[in-house]
Amino acid sequence: MSVAAGAAPTRRSLISQEMYELVFGTVYTGLMTNLLLVVGCLPAVLLVVATDLAVTWPVLALTAPLVAPALTAAFAVFAAYRDGSTTVVRTFVQAWRLHVRRSLAIGALATGVVVVTGVDVAFFWGRTAGAVAIPVLVTLMAGALVTAVLALAAVPELPGARLRDLLRAALFLGVRRWYLSVGSLVVLGLLAGVVGTRPAVGLGFVAAPLLYVVWANARFALGPVVH
């Protein structure tokens, strides 16, 4: 008779400890980042959720730059997560405090360009000159958004760089790697659509995963300057 005949068989866990920690860390990072984004963008979030933007868009334009520091902080969280860290709250708060001034400047510049071009598009809509003017204006609007996103992603990576150098590099790399820029704009459009129609789903669950895709595209596009 075998010595181990009476021993109970060893059961193997279907999920390893490492896999459990990975899944838990990913879910926690995503949900907590969503919550912090809502807090950081609260004025704009309230306007989007609780008002008619056709009426309140000028107020939204005033609060839109406040979104930029929250995006910078979220991008810093994504970078830390890539390196294995799940200290979401501390990373977010520290990045927000360190980069708030430059992020606000980037957000204000991008908002200004978007508002001006958006008003011009509305003016030319239905006019003969609009066939020429509107594509140019929409391109400028898209370029401003892409430049802002790349610059915000670069801010935590290059804390000592001058703002104009960040914007110049972001504009150049956004145009050079236009296919990534187009992908990021599509994802941002999808996020805006979900938030506009189902705010709880967009802000509670979808924001972080989609913004992670945007950050990954931006990080790859910024490769020549951040590596």
TrEMBL record:
Organism: Antribacter soli
Coiled-coil spans in chain: none
Transmembrane intervals: 22-49, 55-81, 102-126, 132-156, 177-195, 201-222
Lineage per the UniProt record: Bacteria, Bacillati, Actinomycetota, Actinomycetes, Micrococcales
Keywords: Membrane, Transmembrane, Transmembrane helix
Protein name (record): Ferredoxin-NADPH reductase
Keyword Calcium: no
